[in-house]
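Example record

The entry below shows one chain as it appears in the dataset: sequence first, then structure tokens.
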Amino acid sequence: MLTILSDEFSLVTEWMNELRDIEVQQDRMRFRRNIERIGEMAAMEISKLLETEEVIIQTPLDKIKSRKIKTQPVITTILRAGVPLFNGVLNYFDKADSGFVAAYRKHESNEYFSIKQDYLTCPNLEGRPLIIADPMLATGASLDEAIKDLLTHGNPTQMHIVAAIASEQGVKMIQEKYPEAYLWIGMVDPSLTTKGYISPGLGDAGDLSFGQKLQF
């Protein structure tokens, strides 16, 4: 259940072009906003799949039957890079609850890294749709760790994964481990570097959004 949001030309393609462009990347606010926009587009598509219920709306003149989301989703992200994408999804699901995971790559050598996950806070997921906003799906290792811990907080009715960019390998890994998940990706790139970065990719989404971090 993979949807590539730029499969047909749209504004998503334009935003992805800017996200990749090393000249436009110098404008951090624009970089964050383009990531946010992709989250908004994904949220609109996700909303079409959520369970709804009938509601009666009182207008100034009469009553009208309509529909509304039956159960609000829980929107989660992996700090810090995921914040702009998370904000985009939350802009549209403004009644949703939220959860946060703190995880990062710890590089042991030039060719090897492990995933360190230090923190998770999340409401009860039982019987609710779960949306995970992770801007870069590279190897899938950090997302896999986050999902495993999130699912200890309950069994969601649906799981949606939103990413701005992904590698074919990362998509395949998540699809094999979580075949029930819906994937909403801006663009999918063909390969990973030896260090596990998406190629041609767009660089480090966290650094481009918020500034270069110190390495320990």
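Notes for this example: Residues 45 and 94 are 15 Å apart (CA to CA). Residues 2-49+71-207 form a domain with the Rossmann fold fold (CATH 3.40.50.2020).
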